[in-house]
């Protein structure tokens, strides 16, 4: 079967829809493979240690197409951070879903952290790592990291407000979350999640009103 060009209302030749769809699907597949490979390599080895040749080899996408998709490495780093965020959102949504009191759902976030820290290959927060490596020279990366951390702060803020706590409590909990991420990477232990959870329990007990709606944990 031969795919022929069609003609637009203006008389100009337009690509056949089947060919256009196939080209678009191939581009989406190539981009997904690049993002998956780059995200994994950047996290395992560090951004500065990974060149575009390594991403080409891991993704199976040619350098020509790779640079067509991401003309600069900075753009690829930003895209991998955005790519990761969907998975983080999904896991946070699952961890905080259900009809439990908001205080318990806040503590469930620290249980999720423990699962992350205990997983093979945990090397810290990919966003904090990227910020440490590139933020001084890349506003794109710095902005992606700041927006991701704002996501955590927003979620904590919503749960704290639902529990009847003061806004500053969300900031304090966010510090516990980020501190636990860094400490777990340095110590190579999931224990910082338990320590951060215990500290969060103390904060919740001190700051939330007893009983509904917060469901303040009992010390």
Automatic annotation (TrEMBL):
Residues 191-219 are annotated as: Disordered. Coiled coil: none annotated. InterPro entries: Homeodomain-like_sf (IPR009057), HTH_TetR (IPR001647), Tet_transcr_reg_TetR-rel_C_sf (IPR036271), TetR_C (IPR011075). Residues 51-70 bind DNA. It comes from the Bacteria. Keywords: DNA-binding, Transcription, Transcription regulation. The keyword Transcription regulation applies. Residues 209-219 have a biased composition (Pro residues). Residues 28-88 form the HTH tetR-type domain. PANTHER family: HTH-TYPE TRANSCRIPTIONAL REGULATOR LMRA, TRANSCRIPTIONAL REGULATORY PROTEIN. This is Transcriptional regulator, TetR family. The lineage of its organism: Bacteria, Bacillati, Actinomycetota, Thermoleophilia, Solirubrobacterales.
């Amino acid at each position: 079967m031969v795919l022929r060009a069609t003609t637009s209302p203006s008389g100009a030749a337009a690509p056949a829809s089947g060919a256009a769809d196939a080209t678009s699907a191939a581009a989406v597949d190539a981009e997904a493979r690049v993002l998956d490979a780059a995200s994994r390599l950047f996290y395992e080895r560090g951004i500065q240690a990974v060149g575009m040749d390594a991403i080409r080899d891991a993704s199976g996408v040619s350098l020509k197409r790779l640079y067509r998709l991401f003309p600069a490495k900075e753009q690829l780093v930003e895209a991998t951070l955005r790519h990761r965020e969907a998975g983080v959102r999904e896991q946070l949504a699952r961890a905080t879903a259900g009809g439990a009191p908001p205080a318990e759902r806040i503590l469930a976030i620290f249980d999720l952290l423990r699962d992350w820290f205990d997983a093979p290959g945990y090397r810290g927060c990919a966003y904090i790592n990227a910020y440490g490596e590139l933020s001084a020279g890349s506003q794109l990366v710095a902005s992606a990291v700041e927006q991701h951390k704002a996501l955590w702060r927003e979620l904590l803020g919503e749960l704290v407000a639902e529990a009847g706590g003061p806004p500053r409590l969300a900031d304090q909990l966010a510090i516990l979350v980020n501190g636990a991420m860094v400490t777990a990477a340095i110590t190579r232990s999931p224990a910082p999640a338990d320590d951060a959870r215990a500290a969060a329990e103390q904060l919740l007990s001190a700051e939330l009103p007893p009983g509904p709606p917060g469901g303040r944990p009992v010390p």
